[in-house]
Design goal:
alpha/beta; Nucleotidyltransferase, domain 5; globular; Gcp-like domain-containing protein; Gcp-like_dom; ATPase_NBD
């Protein structure tokens, strides 16, 4: 069984995966005002009681960004501790990893992944054919979401290293 911890979404959650299917998901928070650090361990303990995770976990997976710095660090630290204590492998996935997995090579230049994270942070992940790399861009102004046109995208590509 795989335990996936989503700490990028506005409301983080655990998902249990078995035979490539999500068999159970549990939100860690019910609103944006609670602190994940206060609810993460109790949520895990509930899952462990319900599914006997100590005996069944084979892999831990979490997303590593982009997202809220604090949420990412809390989630990664928790799973790192669990990984060491239980001797279970831990894998981190970024939006670039998802980009590579989900989007066909011929569609890379015309695809964008939009990420809404906790603390009302928003990001887009794009692929630059010219630079042959993925770019993660934080959206500072929501108005820009309505203008994901060629000019806006070119501006992002122009201002990267």
């Amino acid at each position: 069984m795989i335990l996936f911890l989503d700490v990028v979404s506005p409301l983080p959650e655990f998902s249990l995966i078995e035979d490539n299917k999500i068999i159970f998901s549990k939100k860690i928070l019910t609103n944006n005002f609670d602190k994940m650090s206060d609810y993460l361990i109790p949520a895990y303990i509930d899952l462990d009681k319900k599914f006997s995770l100590d005996k069944r976990l084979e892999l831990l997976v979490t997303n590593i960004g982009p997202g809220s710095y604090t949420a990412l660090r809390v989630g990664i630290a928790f799973l790192s501790g669990l990984s060491l204590a239980k001797n279970i492998n831990l894998i981190g996935l970024s939006c670039v990893d998802l980009f590579r997995y989900e989007i066909k090579k011929e569609q890379l230049s015309s695809s964008v992944i939009y990420i809404s994270s906790s603390n009302n942070q928003k990001f887009i992940c794009l692929y630059s054919v010219e630079k042959n790399k993925h770019i993660i861009h934080k959206i500072e102004n929501d108005d820009n979401l309505f203008y994901l046109d060629k000019l806006y995208i070119n501006n992002i590509f122009t201002n990267i290293d």
